[in-house]
Amino acid sequence: xxxxxxxxxxxxxxxxxxxxxxxxxxxxxxxxxxxxxxxxxxxxxxxxxxxxxxxxxxxxxxxxxxxxxxxxxxxxxxxxxxxxxxxxxxxxxxxxxxxxxxxxxxxxxxxxxxxxxxxxxxxxxxxxxxxxxxxxxxxxxxxxxxxxxxxxxxxxxxxxxxxxxxxxxxxxxxxxxx
Length: 178
Hints:
single chain; 178 residues
């Protein structure tokens, strides 16, 4: 919980308790989603992945199948600058691809969690994991993916997964998030 190391005033304790509880719930969700998608269709073991912002589809390619899912971009992390940028603040991301990140910003502003509503921030991998957990919990995403890139990574949420086998048959994998 490296994101919450600042000392707080007495009147912020309730808000911070709420945020700490949300973080714990989000971390639990991340773990459950990761296991379910790994066991259900192999998330994390694809040969390659790609995101088409114009269609909103996240695609994973395997030797025997292709998996696709509607996606949203939460944000991106740069190892070089040690910083996180929310998708809603990144002009290279189409607005329709940043709805989940905007929902997190709106939730943060409404709840008085102003540091979570800043366009970008200094962060490390642990803090990005905390931001992801909070975002997945707030949006109740059915899945999340940390797409590796050259000098960092992009964090995305996704919905139901369509699996297309090499022979053209399709099936679906969905998680009902409570």
